[in-house]
Amino acid sequence: MSKTRKAAGRPPIDMIDDEAERLAGLALSVERRFPAVSALLLRETGRARLHKAAGISPDTVTMGSTVEFVDDSNGTKRTVTLVYPSEADISRGRISILTPVGAALIGLRTGQSILWPDRHLTVLGVRRA
Question: Given its phi and psi angles, is residue 111 left (phi above 0), alpha (psi -120 to 50 degrees) or beta?
Fold first, then answer.
């Protein structure tokens, strides 16, 4: 894969410093049960630009954000709220950070896209709690 494709696949992301630390710990704690998602989430927390909560842009996906996105591979639009595993409830649109889609969305901003790992997702809008 070329450097250009890698750059397009993984856009710059931003995270709240406390959340990134908690998410890295969570990823390590589930490494044996969910090795692929754990590795993806660890990679994202490791490459994110970290900010204090008050300094992060309001259109950045953080924990508790409600995110409207489109799966560009099939045109499906969804609106979900990104939560920790104990709060997940797919029937209410609350997806866990430990799902591939949840791990893909964290840190993105409105308008950004990510190739993850076999989907191309674009964030259309973010509402933070």
Answer: left
